[in-house]
From TrEMBL:
<dbReference type="InterPro" id="IPR014721">
    <property type="entry name" value="Ribsml_uS5_D2-typ_fold_subgr"/>
</dbReference>
<keyword id="KW-0255">Endonuclease</keyword>
<dbReference type="InterPro" id="IPR000100">
    <property type="entry name" value="RNase_P"/>
</dbReference>
<comment type="subunit">
    <text>Consists of a catalytic RNA component (M1 or rnpB) and a protein subunit.</text>
</comment>
<keyword id="KW-0378">Hydrolase</keyword>
<protein>
    <recommendedName>
        <fullName>Ribonuclease P protein component</fullName>
        <ecNumber>3.1.26.5</ecNumber>
    </recommendedName>
</protein>
<comment type="similarity">
    <text>Belongs to the RnpA family.</text>
</comment>
<keyword id="KW-0819">tRNA processing</keyword>
<dbReference type="InterPro" id="IPR020568">
    <property type="entry name" value="Ribosomal_Su5_D2-typ_SF"/>
</dbReference>
<keyword id="KW-0694">RNA-binding</keyword>
<keyword id="KW-0540">Nuclease</keyword>
<feature type="region of interest" description="Disordered">
    <location>
        <begin position="117"/>
        <end position="152"/>
    </location>
</feature>
<dbReference type="GO" id="GO:0004526">
    <property type="term" value="F:ribonuclease P activity"/>
</dbReference>
<comment type="function">
    <text>RNaseP catalyzes the removal of the 5'-leader sequence from pre-tRNA to produce the mature 5'-terminus. It can also cleave other RNA substrates such as 4.5S RNA. The protein component plays an auxiliary but essential role in vivo by binding to the 5'-leader sequence and broadening the substrate specificity of the ribozyme.</text>
</comment>
<dbReference type="InterPro" id="IPR020539">
    <property type="entry name" value="RNase_P_CS"/>
</dbReference>
<dbReference type="Pfam" id="PF00825">
    <property type="entry name" value="Ribonuclease_P"/>
</dbReference>
Length: 152
């Protein structure tokens, strides 16, 4: 179970995380994260805790399946809260395939999404460093030609 101080409950907080946060999609789930936001509801100047919420629609399955997916996601995220910046708002939205996925598949997708949000390569980035994004270098014999050797 997620501790009380780490639960996302207000509609406004869900909306903030989804609309103003970053998003990482995987085949089984989508994670929205608004890093380091301040909590307008918190008293004092203390750093608010990371809070998480879950969205599991009827497309995932019947109520028993949806509740099982929520329990699994809560358990998985509870173990990963320390990796998230303090004050973050996190919303995990389960996609239809999550209902038939096992615990390990959900863990893999959650880890991959969090890695992308917290320090992985941004979407559309080119880790190979070439200008074309194809993974092949331009033809060094003919600088005016691209990776296929044909004129562009």
């Amino acid at each position: 179970m997620l501790p009380t101080e780490n639960r996302l409950r207000r509609r406004e907080d869900f909306a903030t995380a989804v609309r103003r946060g970053r998003r990482a999609g995987r085949p089984l789930l989508v994670v929205h994260c608004r890093s380091g936001s301040t909590d307008p509801h918190a008293a004092g100047e203390c750093v608010p805790p990371t809070r998480a919420g879950f969205v599991v629609s009827k497309a995932v399955g019947i109520a028993v399946v949806r509740n099982k997916v929520k329990r699994r996601l809560r358990h998985l995220l509870r173990d990963r809260l320390d990796r998230l910046p303090a004050g973050s708002l996190v919303v995990v939205r389960a996609l239809p395939g999550a209902g038939t996925a096992d615990h390990d598949e959900l863990a893999r997708d959650l880890d991959a999404a969090l890695e992308r949000l917290l320090g992985g390569a941004p979407r559309g980035s080119n880790p190979t460093g070439d200008a074309t994004g194809s993974g092949r270098a331009a033809d060094p014999r003919n600088p005016g030609r691209g990776p296929g050797g044909s004129a562009q």
